[in-house]
């Protein structure tokens, strides 16, 4: 049986289509739906092209980098391999999905979010008498723009230096680049949670009393938890030193907490919040948030690579970038506890 993917013409222009990724362009020309019930079911359009040119990118039998450049058409696949490997590194140990309420795709560098700031009277669910006006919740755009930031790394290597390297090993370096990019996005998110997005909405900070000597107690956590009403403190983002203090609290000696940590590597606090440790947060800080209402991630672009350079084997100083920004949604949904 002849398949369309065997005869698809690959060219640089597939990377330049507005509003489409390379894979989406391939899928338009070679839809995956056509392969249902065949041995190729489960592969996307890009993976079918790898099969077409017999390029193995992972495992003990992975090919070398130069396998991509055997033909001019197979070379077109190389930038997507770079992007996928970097994206995989970004997704490993990614904390952003655990602290963002929504992800908005936006084509540009300046974004204006929306906000609703209800007062106590607006939050109350009043009974509406017959013929009476229904209480209103005003939603409006923010006064100031949310700026998106381009974060990236430069791939500096000569083709001669990497042409004989196994793709499986080369992917490790690319995944590390992705991890670095994602770390920068996380730092941007934490900065917005702490200082706001430019719309006069910095986090409300609770400081421990001087008598506490910067020593966290379970009582402090309970008091901090109580400040979130009507929101729910379901996520705690903590620095390494605060994490150590929390783990030493008597309340964390609960056997079920220990079993969960040993079995899954994840910690849930006695308050029911997911505990996330990151070195991107300065020492002595703990951010509590309701992840369903606190933060919006604005994604200007997915992973972008300089495909022209990569296809032409000009790897020296090829940029790999990703554009994202963050906006606060409901200010009371995130708070800071400072030791």
Task: Please summarize what this structure is.
The chain has 339 residues and is an alpha+beta fold.
Key words describing this protein structure:
339 residues; alpha+beta; six-stranded mixed beta sheet; 14 strands
Show the helix and strand layout:
Layout: H1 22-29, H2 45-52, H3 72-75, H4 78-91, E1 102-105, E2 110-111, E3 114-115, H5 120-123, E4 140-141, E5 146-147, E6 149-155, H6 159-162, H7 167-195, E7 204-207, H8 218-226, E8 235-238, H9 240-247, H10 255-264, E9 267-268, E10 274-277, E11 285-289, E12 295-305, H11 307-311, E13 318-328, E14 334-338
Parallel strand pairs: 1-12, 7-14, 8-10
Antiparallel strand pairs: 2-5, 3-4, 6-13, 8-11, 9-10, 11-14, 12-13
Helix pairs in contact: 4-7
Report on this structure.
The strands form 4 sheets. A 6-stranded mixed β-sheet has the order 7-14-11-8-10-9. It is an alpha+beta fold. Helix 4 (78-91) packs across helix 7 (167-195). The termini are far apart. The chain has helices spanning 22-29, 45-52, 72-75, 78-91, 120-123, 159-162, 167-195, 218-226, 240-247, 255-264, 307-311; strands spanning 102-105, 110-111, 114-115, 140-141, 146-147, 149-155, 204-207, 235-238, 267-268, 274-277, 285-289, 295-305, 318-328, 334-338.
User: How many whole angstroms does the radius of gyration measure?
Assistant: 25 Å
Structural class: alpha+beta
Order of helices and strands: HHHHEEEHEEEHHEHEHHEEEEHEE
Alpha-carbon distance between the termini?
Answer: 68 Å
Q: What's the helix count? A: 11
Mean pLDDT: 86
Unreliable parts:
none
How much beta, percentage-wise?
15-25%
